[in-house]
Automatic annotation (TrEMBL), chain A:
Keywords: Glycerol metabolism, Kinase, Transferase. ADP-binding subunit of the dihydroxyacetone kinase, which is responsible for the phosphoenolpyruvate (PEP)-dependent phosphorylation of dihydroxyacetone. DhaL-ADP is converted to DhaL-ATP via a phosphoryl group transfer from DhaM and transmits it to dihydroxyacetone binds to DhaK. Pathway: Polyol metabolism; glycerol degradation. InterPro entries: DhaK_L_YcgS, DhaL_dom, DhaL_dom_sf, Dihydroxyacetone_Kinase. It comes from Terrihalobacillus insolitus. It catalyses: dihydroxyacetone + phosphoenolpyruvate = dihydroxyacetone phosphate + pyruvate. The gene is dhaL. Its EC number is 2.7.1.121. Pfam families: Dak2. This is phosphoenolpyruvate--glycerone phosphotransferase.
From TrEMBL, chain B:
One of its GO terms (biological process) is glycerol catabolic process. Homodimer. The dihydroxyacetone kinase complex is composed of a homodimer of DhaM, a homodimer of DhaK and the subunit DhaL. Gene3D superfamilies: Dihydroxyacetone kinase, domain 1, Dihydroxyacetone kinase, domain 2. Dihydroxyacetone binding subunit of the dihydroxyacetone kinase, which is responsible for the phosphoenolpyruvate (PEP)-dependent phosphorylation of dihydroxyacetone via a phosphoryl group transfer from DhaL-ATP. Pfam families: Dak1. Its EC number is 2.7.1.121. It comes from Terrihalobacillus insolitus. It comes from the Bacteria. NCBIfam families: dhaK1, PRK14479.1. Keywords: Glycerol metabolism, Kinase, Transferase. It is an enzyme of class 2 (transferase). The keyword Ligase does not apply. This is phosphoenolpyruvate--glycerone phosphotransferase.
Amino acid sequence: MELNVQSVLKWIEKLNDKIQNNKEYLTSLDQAIGDGDHGINMARGFQEVINKTTTSQYDTVSDLTKDVAMTLMSKVGGASGPLYGTAFLKLSMSVKGKDPVDHDAFTAGVQEALNGIQQRGKANEGEKTLVDVWAPVLRFLQENSEFEPGKLEETAKVAMESTKDIIAIRGRAAYLKERSKGHLDPGSVSSFYLFQSLAEVLQEGE
Amino acid sequence: MKKIMNDPNQVVQDMLKGFVAAFPNDVKQLPNTTVIARKNAPVSNKVGLVSGGGSGHEPAHAGYVGKGMLDAAVAGEVFTSPTPDQVYEAIKAVDGGAGVFLVIKNYTGDVMNFEMAAELAAAEGIDVEQVIVNDDVAVEDSSFTTGRRGIAGTVFVHKIAGAKAEQGGSLQDVKAVAEKVVANVRSMGMALTPCTVPAAGKPSFEIDDNEMEIGMGIHGEPGIERKEIASANEIAEELTQKVLEDIDYSGSEVAVMVNGLGSTPEMELFIVNARVHEILAEKGIKVYKTFVGEYMTSLEMAGCSVTLLKLDDELKELLEAEAVTPAFSS
Ligand SMILES: Nc1ncnc2c1ncn2[C@@H]1O[C@H](COP(=O)(O)OP(=O)(O)O)[C@@H](O)[C@H]1O
Ligand SMILES: [Mg+2]
């Protein structure tokens, strides 16, 4: 299975559907340990992404993901805008000239995306941020030579659920210290949707 | 939710339109942006000051755009940092050739978005410097975590750095004095009721009628302690005490700010202020100037914050310097 413009478009559409459908859920997670805007931010940003990608033509996955990045960067705001924007921008740069994007090229892209997220946000794994989903997913991709969508989704899900027990060090939840324990990290849940959508597209393509 | 609005997703644009209509001779909105700038921006050979952040803290920050304070304010969605492209537009619009100075409140999102804008501006050859305001003593200061939040003390940074820039200070001079303010300003807040972000439609948290939350953030981030509501004197004591514990104010002169969060009447703010002054007098701390009112709100939250800025001769002079803005004059 390889990713081309069509499959990445499907990925983004599925992700947008999940975000719109769970807008209130994401916001309620952020109300518990943040400022209650994560669902609103993501829904606004991805709606704009869809508006953009459904009215544009793309020749390469790189061009498409770059447009996604620029739209997120200019429409989301907050902490998640620069982070998701940077992730898609680094992915875009990494997969340039690699169409169709195979497992190894995509894995390299995710590596670059995670590096970008960490450079921007300075978070390490275990600090209750979306890094806690991206890092295990990257390891899973690196340890396998094929996509294995079912296991990919499972990896992202376990990682997302593991953020519940973590005491936050980064982001707004860090203000709560011990009291942040027992709540899922909102950004990790939206990142789970991202990889879940990817897994679904990969599954359909098999 | 009961609010005077049209479309909950358009509140920021609608507000800015009304803001510009109220002060047409003083400010302008940069076309197709959420940036409010001085009407005469850029002021040539003056360091340009840009601040901003999520909306919902009015009069911050657009209310402080004008002579002696900010050159531009960037408005994000309610409680959400503005995006880098908007901040970048503000930087370009106020660059009068002497560089641009960014006043950023210490929130992960604000820091990342403003820094990305600064990188864009630097790539265009604009000199950009910044200060990160972190006056909220409700949060522990730590280099391993996100660190303290920026709240009402930010207004003193706008005032003093703005005065320095107006007097012709260089970018480095403005940065130095802004850092001095940040080193000497501390705040602590409390809330009685939550607020509702228009697009969310429901209150940010629940709190019983007989409860208050000490250390509440200006975005409804939970504070440090929830307890039974106390008298104004006790509230003033608790807030002031926390501030005084954080840096040594003994024997110094201070500026005091008692700030309302949105739906606390001035009457209550003055009651708090009375006790704050008594406490400072008991400690031998001299009050140089007092500000009571709404400077950094949190939509319709009820509550207040107490800010103390430790002054020296330079800060006093800059605090007194002329400022003419919609929300602050001296
Ligand atoms: N420094 C950081 N590094 C990585 N992710 C972060 C960081 N700070 C916050 N996040 C992620 O962003 C999410 C919050 O996003 P959002 O609510 O949209 O922004 P904000 O915190 O500015 O309101 C958190 O749940 C967390 O996953
Ligand atoms: Mg948030």
